[in-house]
Phosphatidic acid phosphatase type 2/haloperoxidase domain-containing protein
Amino acid sequence: MVIFAVCTWQVVTRGPLLTADERLGRRIRDGALPEGAAEFLADAGGMLVGPVLLAALTTGQWFTARRHGDAPYWWALPLTTGVAMALVPLLVSLAKVLTDRPGPPSMGGSGFFPSGHAATACVAFGACVLLLRRAVASRYRQWCLVAACAVFNGAVGYGLVRRGYHWPLDVAASWALGVLLLWAAVTVARGLLRRRGGGAA
């Protein structure tokens, strides 16, 4: 929350952090990563990738719970992560209207802060990791999932900046917002389970 607040404050006030942000953005756009690869990574943060995978995973868990008679409150975490995913476009759109940040020169216009693609990827794939961790017994493999999710989100953010769709600060703020939403989803799910006498989320 603090990171998101600081990023927003800098954007609204045109603070000194924006100078370094725009300088870094220009360096990334001049980087060696081919534009085709950058476009692929940027598209991976769209609504047709992470949210669809999350919906498929939730549906699979529902069928598994019905078939094997799993704990009756299996739905707590899928429900709260689903709500977090639904909140992403609403919160991002609100922030875009309130900050009205100009985009990179290649895009023009305004309303680029924060990045919807970066926030979508962060919440969707982060939620998938949270749902999958119960099926992965090894703590080492659980951390491997977390690391893979972090690397993937980093790649999506890099692709967005490399293609000139966003400034780095737009992406960083979206990651902060995404982590906050995932934390809230886990916290609420645990509260639901405690109230109903279920297991850990």
